Amino acid sequence: MFEPPYPYGTVQAHAPATVDGMVPVVTHIQTDKPYVFITIDDGAVQHPKARELMINAGVWPSLFLNTKYAEGHKDYFKELPATIHSHTTNHPNLQGKPFEFQKNEICGNADFLAHDYGKRPTLFRPPFGNYDTNTRKAAASCGFKALVNWTAAVNDGRVQFQSGDKLKPGDIVLMHFRTTFVEDFTAFLNRAKQDGLTPVPLEDFLG
Q: How far is CA 45 from the centre of its chain?
């Protein structure tokens, strides 16, 4: 469905710098190319069609996995054409929580993912998109390059926009591993095609 516009896995741009011990917050990628980014959270439903859909579409998503959902399903997630990133151990709302609590949630998840998938994740997404200064400091102390949120989301087979009525170059799109995976992923693919955009790997632009 989509032809790779460059060799995936090669760095196209770098994440903003960590300043004052806090990771940068990224909700949109600055690019003059017609690129869009799909991210998939949690891992609660290991849908059997996910791998086939990704391969057939030529799309390489970024997965932000919780320990509580990903644990015990290493074989499933390893087979997906995707890069795995971090989304805490237990999916709490981090905002307002003490630094040590946040660090345990964030570093613990990173340690688990590094052990199960052989590579430590470089990007972090806070549950519900909620964060504070402690979150950004904890993520930096756990070795992350950036805290990643989103500008559009897919729910129940519909793409929902934070502003406007279409996807724009550099948009980061959120979806989840749910029973509606096929409908949601297909809705994203169709919307990207309609808006003249090619999905490319997020980590290539936060290298």
A: 16
- Each residue's pLDDT tens digit, 185-203: 999 999 999 999 999 999 9
Give pairs for 86-91: CB < 8 Å, separation 24+.
Answer: 86/110, 86/113, 86/121, 86/123, 86/124, 86/125, 86/144, 87/41, 87/42, 87/124, 87/125, 87/126, 87/127, 88/126, 88/127, 90/66, 91/42, 91/66, 91/127
- Residue 18 is classified by DSSP as P
Amino acid identity for residue 92 in this structure? P
- SS3 of residue 41 by DSSP: strand
Closest CA to 11 of 169, 205, 201, 144: 205
74: tokens are: 């290493």
Q: Cβ of 78: how many Cβ atoms within 10 Å?
A: 12
The overall pTM is greater than 0.90: yes
Predicted confidence (pLDDT) per residue in 100-145, tens digit: 999 999 999 999 999 999 999 999 999 999 999 999 999 999 999 9
- Please report, for residues 9, 52, 68, 119, 150, the alpha-carbon distance to residue 27 in angstroms, rounded to integers and kept in the order given: 21, 28, 25, 24, 5
